[in-house]
Specification:
single chain; seven-stranded antiparallel sheet; alpha+beta
Amino acid sequence: MSNSASDSAGWILLREVILALGMISLLITGLWIHTDSMPPLVVVESDSMIHDAAGEVGSIDAGDLILVHSVAADKVITFAEATETGNPHYEYSSHGMYGDVIIYKKNGVEGTPIIHRAILKAVANATVTPTDRETQSCPAGASWDGVSADSDGRAGTCVLTWDVAGTSLVNVDNITWHFDGSNTGLYPCDRNSGFNHAGIIEDYLVINQWDPGHAGIITLGDNNRCSVDQGANAAPGSSGLFTTQGQVGAVQDDWLVGVAGQEIPWLGSVKLALAGGEPGTYYVPTSSWVGLFVSIGILLALPFVLEPLARVVLATSPEIDEAKREEAISTVAKTLLEEE
């Protein structure tokens, strides 16, 4: 009897584990289908995208889970495009500001990806065939771009001039643009009281005589004032981001992990707490912990609230009344048959 009970308990436990794993697999598969990206979620670790030091739903805080949608770089909507009057993407916004937030690998190097806003997109205009494709050698005045197509259709060309989507810049040798609100939207450098990588550089974001080197996107954390990831070569005074390969360049297609989709607030804080290491939960705002524990409390309390309600609903449903009536008739009929 004891062995039978033990076997039964073991089977119940195994069944519950299989059921839980199945549900998790279905969830991940569903998210993968929805985002066309694997993994379909990233956890935000830093405060470079916060809009409020206390944290808020709608912008990106440390500890949030963010869905990652697989999108090609040429489909990314930049701040410039979203703030240019007459642009098809005019007034498009995501996560509290204009333009897409993208997730990318710094210089394509494996490691923790960066999640920052796309500000401006450089597109190759005039190109010339490289003098030596193998060594990526270009004629004087041109820069090697391994992504843009050459005249023969092959990937890799030498760029002479640039266009900038969302601006009036066409066929320029280098890129200078002022986000002062006169042509594209105003991007004030003092929009937040806190910052990570640099102080206020100008009253508004200025891209000055930037030669991208290759087609790609300038990126900037919403909480980093005007210190773009691509550094002082792009925006004066920016400290930028670095890898072992040097300064982070314009984000090109093969560095792009995806575009930030829906935010699932707070839940990523658990992963940061369990993973340990740096920065861990250092940047997670207090409100996120409050939201997390309140959510857990609600989830734990739901069964105790829903079960009595379900019983009340079921007890008053016509189907239950009919079942009780049929059961009573069956009982009476059975009693009469036994008496006969």
